[in-house]
Structures are given as structure tokens and as C-alpha cells.
Amino acid sequence: MITVRTIPELRAAIAAHPGAGRPGKRPAFVPTMGNLHDGHIALVRQARPLGDVLVASIFVNRLQFLPHEDFDSYPRTWEADCAKLEAAGCDIVFAPRESDLYPEPQTFKLQPDPQLADILEGHFRPGFFMGVCTVVMKLFSAVFFASGGGTAVFGKKDYQQLMVIRRMVQQ
Ligand code: PAF
């Protein structure tokens, strides 16, 4: 398992992977914010056979935290996360710094359909799904750029998030 920080490093690592660096080969991708538990690892195991190289990301996305939610105290458990990912068969961990995904203040944001994103959790956390969609679109373009597609796996525990992302991808 290798760890990469920047988008060019990620793309080079995917291209160099023996199973993936050829036409028609596609990544399977599990995005996370780290602090991994058994549910995340189940997603990694589920994703494993769905692609030719397995990429997991660890990125605590400031954009999906509301002003009163504490971004700084979100648990960061890097060593333990890497050990779990490696044991689950992950090939590449993409762990960008904020400056890699947000090199300047993010003034363009992806606006999800309010009918899906402004209800339930989105009602109580305004802007949350905008932050999620904006980072997921960036992660998808980083991971799937060369292959033009692939498979991303999201948990059903965050069911509304799954529906929002699925609709975003359909559109
Ligand atoms: O579900 C999460 O952990 C996050 O919302 C995600 C999809 C990794 C985006 O930051």
C-alpha cells in the first residue's frame, strides 16, 4: 500500500499500478474522513473486487463543517487508519493536505438539489451537503480522471448522503 498527498502523485500511482495503468482498467474508490471503524473497512472489502486498483481517501473536509461544529477536534487517527486499510487490501491511500484540494479559498461550490439536500440532516445542517458534494466532485475528478470512470462505494449508514451523491453522479 502506498500513500500519496497530491493529485499528480495520485494519478501517477494509479497509472503505475500493475492492475490499473492500462486502457479499460478502472479504480474502485472509498472516500473517508479517517477515524476508520469496521463499517469503513467493510466498504473497502466490498469495493476491492469492483475495480482494478483500490483507492481510499482520508481527508477531513472543512467545507462540510458548520461554523459551530469543531473541525479542529475531529478525530485524526492516521497510523491506525493506515494499518486497517492495508489489512483490508487497499492499494493506494490518497491523503491530500487542505492546500492540495483547496489551493485557494473555495468560492465556487457545488449546489445540490434542495429537494434532496435541504431536508432531514440538511435541514439541521445547512450547507453540509454543498460541502460534501464539492469535495466529492473534486475527489472523483482526482481519482477517475485518467480512466474516465470507475466505482465509488458509500455506506448506507449515511443514507441521505448516498442519495445526494448518486443523483449528482446521474446528472
Ligand atoms: O461520509 C464521509 O465520511 C464524508 O462525508 C465524505 C463522503 C468522505 C466526504 O467528505
Q: Could you explain how this protein is built, in words?
A:
This protein has 171 residues and is of the alpha/beta class. It has one domain (2-170): HUPs (Rossmann fold), CATH 3.40.50. The chain has helices at 7-16, 38-47, 78-87, 98-101, 114-117, 121-124, 128-144, 159-170; strands at residues 2-4, 27-32, 53-58, 92-94, 151-152. The protein has a five-stranded parallel sheet, sandwiched between helices. α7 crosses α8 (159-170). The protein is globular and about 45 Å long. The mean pLDDT is 96. The structure holds pantoate. The site of pantoate (PAF) has 10 residues, from β2 and α7.
Throw out a few tags for this protein.
single chain; 5-stranded parallel β-sheet; 171 residues; alpha/beta; binds pantoate; Rossmann fold
Task: Produce the secondary structure layout.
Blueprint lengths: L1 E3 L2 H10 L10 E6 L5 H10 L5 E6 L19 H10 L4 E3 L3 H4 L12 H4 L3 H4 L3 H17 L6 E2 L6 H12 L1
This protein binds pantoate.
Pantoate binds next to β2 and α7.
Number of helices: 8
Major beta sheet, strand line-up: 1-4-3-2-5
Low-confidence parts: none
How is the main sheet built? 5 strands, parallel
Structural class: alpha/beta
The helical percent reads 40-55%
Percent strand: 5-15%
**Looking at CATH, which topology would you report?**
Rossmann fold
Shape: globular
